[in-house]
Structures are given as C-alpha cells and as structure tokens.
Design goal:
Elements lengths: L1 H4 L8 E4 L10 H7 L5 E4 L2 E4 L2 E3 L5 E4 L1 H4 L3 H5 E4 L7 E3 L6 E4 L2 E3 L2 E5 L3 E3 L4 E5 L2 E3 L2 E4 L3 E3 L3 E5 L2 E3 L2 E5 L3 E4 L7 E4 L5 E4 L2 E4 L3 E6 L3 E8 L9 E5 L7 E8 L8 E3 L19 H7 L8 E5 L2 E4 H4 L5 E2 L4 E4 L6 E5 L14 E6 L3 E11 L6 E19 L9 E5 L5 E13 L5 E12 L2 E7 L12 E12 L2 E7 L7 E5 L8 E5 L2 E3 L8 E4 L5 E5 L2 E6 L3 E5 L2 E5 L2 E5 L2 E5 L10 E5 L2 E2 L6 E2 L5 E4 L87 E4 L7 E5 L15 E7 L4 E6 L8 E5 L12 E9 L2 E10 L2
Parallel strand pairs: 1-2, 2-5, 3-6, 4-7, 5-8, 6-9, 7-11, 8-12, 9-13, 10-14, 11-15, 12-16, 13-17, 14-18, 15-19, 16-20, 17-21, 18-22, 19-23, 21-24, 23-25, 24-26, 27-28, 28-31, 29-32, 30-33, 31-34, 32-34, 33-35, 34-35, 35-36, 35-37, 36-38, 37-38, 37-39, 38-40, 39-41, 40-42, 40-43, 41-44, ...
Antiparallel strand pairs: 56-57, 57-60, 58-59, 58-61, 61-62
Length: about 800
C-alpha cells in the first residue's frame, strides 16, 4: 500500500522514526532534514514534541495508518507543537508533499497556521489527519497561502485563530490563486473552532467557486459567522458546503453569562449561566425576525480573572447586553503568547460580514498599554451601540472603534461614551465604508493624538464616513487634542459613490475646549450635500485655522460660535470639483460676525439680520472642561434669541442637559436651554408628583453636586397630613439605594439640600443615571432623574 502512495516516478528510500531508538531516527525533523526528493519518512506511534519544517520536494510523511489502514494509529501518532511553533510547515515552492495519518496538536503561530502552514507555491496532499487544539493569528488549524492542496479525511476541530478562520484560513493574495480540493468520498470534518471572524472557515481573495465536502460541520446551514468567502475584486464566486452531519444545534432563545458561570452549563437561565461571552454568542441562533440576546450578568469579564476568549466574535441579529454601565465591565487583554500589535491580538469585540450587530449596557476597557481596539468590524455590516462606555485604551493601528460599515441597515448609537484615550496614531472612532443612521446622547471627550508628521495628516480623533442620512443629536465633543500641525480633530466625510446628496445633521451638540492646529471639525462631501447645524454650541476651541469647515447646502440656526480661532467658519472651496456652497446663517451668535467667516470665491453667504456677534456670557464655573460651563447665564444675549419657528429643525424634546429644549415659549441659542426644568419622557420610571410635595434637581446633568429643592412638606387643605419623617433617597439605575439625606419634617415652605455624587460610605459614584426620590411617611411621592458625569 505504501507504494501506491509514493509517486511512481520518484524512487527513494523509507526512513523510520521510533521513540524507542529502534528505528533510523528518534526525531522526525532529523529524518526530514536527511531526506532527499522521493524519500518517505515513516513515523511509529508516540507523542513527538516537534515543530516540523519540510524544505525538500517530493517528500512523503506517514504514520503506520498509511500502510495498515488502522485508524487508531492516527490517535497514537501525535505531533505536539508544545505551544512553541506550528506543528508542521511546508516552505515556499515545495511540490508534491504527502502527509498522512497523524494527530497535530498544540501548535502555535503569531502568523498563519497553528497546526499546518502551507506557504506560497506549494502542492500537497493531506489525508487522514486530526488537527485540534492549535492556536494562530490566522487559520488556527490550517493556513493556506497561494497553494494547491487536496484535503481527504482531515478532521479540523477545537482550534482557535485570533483573527480569521478558526479552522481553516486561505488567502492567495492579489495576483495569486489557491487551488483547494475537498475529497467527496473520504470527507473531512470542520467544526467547533473559534475565531474573531469565520469560526471554521475564512477564504479570502478567492478566484473561483469552492465546494467543501464535509462529514461534519458546526451547524446544518452555515452563515457568515461560521464560514466567510471573499473573492478578488468582489467577483461573483460562491462557497458551497455539502454537509452530512452537524456538531451542535444553535439555541433559539436568550442565554446568560456570568463571571462565576461555567461553559458546561446550559446558559438558559441566570441560575445556570455560561462563563465566556464568546461561548454565549456561539451557541445562540441568528434570527432577523426574532433577535436573541446574550445577557451578561453583573461583574468583570477578563482573560486573567475568568478565562474570557478574545476577540469576542459578534453574530448578526444577536444582541450582547450587559447589566449596565456601572455593573458590567469587559476588560480586553491580549493573548498570552501573541504580542500586542499582531493583528487582532488586542481586539475586544470583532465582526466581519455580519449585517446587524448590537452591544448594550456595559463598560469596555483594556489592560494593555498600546494598540487597544475595543471593536473591529468590517465588510458590509451595521453597528448598534446603546449605553456603552469605552475608556482608557490607547489605540495605534486601529481606533478604539474601527468599523467598515454599509448602508444596507442604519446604525444607531445611543448614550455611547468614549473617553480618556491617548493614541500615537489613530483615535476614538474611525468609521469607514458608508455609515448611515443616528448617534444620540453620546460623548467623545478627553483624548489626545500624539502623532506628528511633516508630510502626512494625522487621523482625526473622531472620524465618520457618512452616507445618505447621518444625524448627531445631543452629543458632546470636548477636550480633543491634536498634536499634528495640519490635522483636524473631528472629520465627518461623505461617501463619494454612488453619486448622491448626503444629509448630515448636528442637533443640540456641544464642541468645546478642543485643540487642533489644522482645524476643529471638518464636514465635507461631494454632490451638493445638505449640512445642518441646529442649536449647537462651538466654544472654547483653539486652532490656527478655523472651528468649522463645511460645504454644500449649509444651514446654521440657533447656534453659538465663540472660539479662539482666526475664523469661526470656513467654506471649503472644493477645488477642482466645480461645486459651490450656499451658507445660510440665521438666529445665531457668531464671534466677529460676518468677518468670522472665511469665504471662497463664487460661493454664497446668507448672513441674516437675526444673527448677533455678542459675548454669549456662559455661566462658567471652576471647571472649564465641564460641559455645564457652557450653559447660559441669566445675562446672556442668547436667551430667547432663537428662531420663533422650530418645526423644521427636528429638534429633540430635551437639551444637552436633559432639560426641556423649549422653555418659556421661545428657544435659546446653543445646546442648553436657560432656566429649563428636567425633561421627563413617557417611558421614564418616575412617580407622578403630588403637587404640594415635589422636588427639583439642578444642575442636571452634574459633575460636582446637584441642588435638590423640596416643596412644602405640609400638605394643603383644612386637615393637612402630619409628616412624621421625610428624606431624599437616591437609587442607581439597578434600583440599589445609594444614599439617604434626611429632611426636617416640621419645616414649611421650601427646603434646599444637595447631593455631591457620593454614596453612604462617602465614595464617589460612577457616571450614570440616578433617581432622586422624595420619601414622606414611607411613601415615594416624587422622583427626579439626574445624570452624573465624571
């Protein structure tokens, strides 16, 4: 039978390898190094701790399974990489390599192929192998690079790739091809592998259709979460997987994960949670008609404390939801063997070609000092984020959030806070592709880019490539610092193709205390975009050029510009494109008036008489970095100075401080409404106040303290209710009591107290939503929602 395997035109010798010393060699690599073209290396059973390299043409490497047909020799003849290097590598340009009858285990690579790596321009036949428990950056089991390979009876399972292709990764590269054949009779199995994307299979730069004949695959009907197939130049080639058996059935219901759980649990209830987030997502079915949720119970999730697997691969139509910003923390940590900076070694969440992914109610950070990426997404997906705080990461190759999205589905971000970041290259957010949707109640602050170059622009700290409709509502951009002398801090660009008129809108947004020599914010697109700035405040920014550069059909209404820049607004001339800008400014306060606008020849500036150029007289305070510094003082000329007709502005009902947006029947300029009270939505969990017993809290939001004003504790009427006890009790969003402040039950009229954002133990509370309750005689008679911002 051996003679049938060795090519008939090659004459060679057989070199035996036995651990007991009775063969020609005790080390497989020594036998390979001694071999010449046409030789066969026959390995007897045992565990060989080696990292094999084949560097000679026409080499055959066999176990006794190949000459006996006894399958047990596959399990008993083991090549163990010992987590030091790949189990086996075929070097470049080596032809006619045959490998049969082994188990390859514990291989490792900071590149491709933890089990087997096939270099460029190789040809090989892999038969009757088990490839398991291997780790690599790409292709945990096998990495195929511009090779010809036939796979027959190869089982690839329980491998892990930090980036692409937990089981198999194949990439010919531009200008090359892979020729991969799967035996339809002696079928392979590929299942239960893990990766940042493409759990089992990731094919890139394919130049033809691929049919994969399998005995067992992870699931019955594969989706992009399990197998990804990308073609050169987006050609219409297809991946076909012929599956006979499946490894597991996805769960068609929510699952639960806890730092104290176990992946041996079923995960179907909080009482039987899984441990790893990656496993929870893996088990849940993707269903666009009935989205399922992976619930993260309170606690800290990390690699060192509870063996979390990173990157956490996101699955379309599966929502990953924590228990709240203050109670669920995900700490990304690099793989212990793969250095930081190698691809996704430092990604926390990752996705590729997943149409709709969602993350909510958690804090995300990392424990490393450079090149941290909280979320990496690519290729035609959309991203939904709700109640997310990302902080203290230091991105390098990628921003804290880097994504290449599409406009097939709108993305929605609500209450996303990204802060406290220093980066040598990238930034807080870099959204490429075509982002359409809405970003509301979000904060981008306290970040510095240290990158400098005499010839190359630095990446903006906040960068969005918008498409069609992109709205920013009640957002804060503050304390962003660029070191490079010709770069902007914030860039909102438009997709150029297909040609269309994009609509970018900024409503109730604050741009404050940003420093960027090349400009603070650039909003730019072709094809006559519509740019709207309604009730925004640009203040305290420092630049050598301008605060805002924009083009297209631009409307600025009810907005304040008060910055230390040569120009408050610059019209982008769009050199060479022949596009002209119409800039309409109405009911706004522009420092230096029309002189504060840098015009371009041929463009139209409609600066109406409703505008003013006065000192806005902000309320100020001790901390200029606090957004409340830019609230209007009682003497501000911007109070009640906005447009009488706000219907066409599509403003939210509340201002940036979550107070009523329109107060006293007339709107103010800027993102804060003077004297307004807290806005209460229909879905807020508040108790209606008894008119004679009510409270107010201001400022709101706050960072140092909020004043709490209590109305008369004595009920009106002829027979007032006797008040035996009264207090202010503060709860967090989870319903946990934070602090109680006693009131004087005998005092009539108003009482004034305050909360300094600390709990009963005088410990500073974290940022978030809190509920201030007035408790009288054991009853909650009034509630106000407040936001604490640290």
């Amino acid at each position: 039978m051996l003679a049938m395997i060795v090519p008939c035109f090659v004459i060679g010798i057989t070199r035996t390898v036995k651990l007991d010393g009775s063969g020609d060699y005790t080390i497989i690599q020594n036998a390979l190094d001694a071999s010449v073209s046409g030789d066969t290396v026959l390995v007897y059973p045992g565990r060989y701790f080696e990292n094999l390299v084949i560097q000679t043409n026409n080499i055959t490497l066999l176990s006794l399974e190949a000459i006996s047909g006894n399958q047990t020799y596959i399990d008993s003849t083991i090549i163990d990489g010992n987590h030091l290097d790949r189990c086996l590598r075929i070097t470049q340009n080596k032809q006619n390599i045959i490998i049969r009858g082994f188990t390859l285990i514990n291989g490792f690579s900071i590149g491709g192929g933890g089990g087997i790596a096939l270099a460029v321009n190789t040809s090989s036949s892999l038969s009757n192998l088990k490839i398991c428990n291997n780790t690599a950056l790409l292709g945990g089991g096998i990495n195929i690079g511009a090779s010809t390979v036939c796979l027959s009876g190869v089982d690839i399972y329980d491998n892990y790739a930090l980036q692409f292709g937990g089981g198999v990764f194949a990439d010919a590269g531009a200008g090359y091809t892979n020729n991969i054949t799967f035996d339809p009779d002696n079928r392979c199995s590929i299942y239960n592998n893990r990766s940042g994307a493409g759990q089992d299979i990731f094919i890139q730069n394919a130049t033809s259709d691929l049919i994969v004949y399998l005995d067992t695959f992870s699931v019955a009907v594969f989706k992009s979460y399990y197998a990804i197939f990308l073609t050169q130049n987006e050609a219409d080639y297809q991946l076909h997987i012929d599956i006979q058996n499946t490894h597991h059935q996805e769960i068609d219901q929510d699952v639960y994960v806890s730092p104290d759980g176990s992946d041996s649990n079923n995960g179907l209830s909080p009482q039987s949670p899984l441990k790893t987030i990656h496993e929870g997502i893996y088990r849940v079915a993707s269903d666009s008609l009935s989205q399922k949720t992976v619930h993260l119970l309170p606690g800290t999730y990390s690699r060192t404390t509870n063996n979390q697997i990173y990157p956490i691969a996101l699955k379309s139509w599966v929502k990953v939801q924590g228990s709240g910003i203050d109670s669920t923390e995900v700490i990304g940590e690099p793989h212990p063997l793969i250095p930081v900076g190698y691809g996704s070694a430092d990604f926390v969440f990752m996705t590729c070609i997943e149409p709709v992914v969602s993350i909510a109610d958690m804090t995300i950070t990392t424990s490393i000092t450079n090149n941290s990426c909280v979320l990496h997404g690519s290729k035609k997906g959309s991203l939904n984020l709700t109640n997310i705080r990302i902080h203290n990461v230091t991105p390098d190759y990628f921003s804290a959030i880097w994504a290449y999205l599409s406009n097939e589905y709108d993305s929605k971000w609500d209450n996303v806070i990204i802060e406290n970041i220093v980066t040598p290259d990238m930034g807080l957010v870099d959204i490429n592709g075509s982002f359409s949707g809405k970003i509301s109640n979000s904060v981008f602050r306290n970040a510095t880019s240290t990158y400098t170059s005499a010839s190359v622009w630095a990446y903006p700290l906040v960068s969005f490539r918008g498409d069609k409709n992109l709205t920013f509502e009640n957002c804060e951009f503050s304390n962003l610092t660029m070191t490079d002398d010709n770069s902007t801090a914030i860039g909102i660009g438009g997709v150029q193709f297909p040609q269309q008129s994009n609509n970018f809108s900024f409503s109730n947004c604050l741009f404050s205390n940003n420093t960027s020599p090349g400009g603070i914010i650039a909003t730019s697109s072709t094809n006559q975009p519509i740019m709207s700035f309604n009730n925004c405040t640009f203040a305290g920014n420092l630049s050598d050029t301008y605060t805002l550069v924009t083009n297209g059909n631009v409307n600025i209404v009810n907005t304040i510009f008060d910055n230390d820049t040569p120009y408050q607004i610059k019209v982008n001339p769009m050199n060479g494109l022949g596009e002209l800008t119409t800039l309409n400014i109405d009911y706004s306060n522009i420092k230096d008036g029309i002189a504060g606008i840098q015009q371009a020849v041929g463009n139209t500036i409609n600066y109406l008489a409703t505008n003013i150029d006065s000192d806005p007289l902000f309320s100020g305070g001790d901390d200029i970095n606090n957004p409340l510094y830019y609230r209007l003082s009682a003497a501000s000329p911007c109070i009640n100075a906005g447009t009488p007709d706000t219907l066409g502005l599509f403003l939210p009902p509340y201002d940036l401080a979550e107070n009523w947006r329109i107060w006293n029947t007339r709107i103010d300029m800027g993102c804060f409404e003077y004297g307004s009270e807290p806005w209460v939505g229909n879905d807020d969990p508040v108790v209606p106040a008894i008119p004679a017993l009510s409270i107010t809290a201001y400022p709101n939001p706050f960072s140092v303290y909020t004043n709490i004003r209590v109305s008369s504790l004595k009920s009106g009427g002829d027979r007032p209710e006797r008040v035996n006890d009264a207090s202010i009790t503060i709860y967090n969003i989870k319903g946990q009591r934070v602090k109680s402040i006693m009131l004087d039950p005998e005092k009539t009229g108003e009482q004034l107290t305050h909360w300094d954002g600390r709990d009963m133990d005088n410990i500073r509370c974290s940022s978030g939503i809190y509920f201030v309750n007035l408790i009288v005689n054991g009853r909650n008679v009034s509630t106000r929602k407040v936001s604490l911002i640290r």
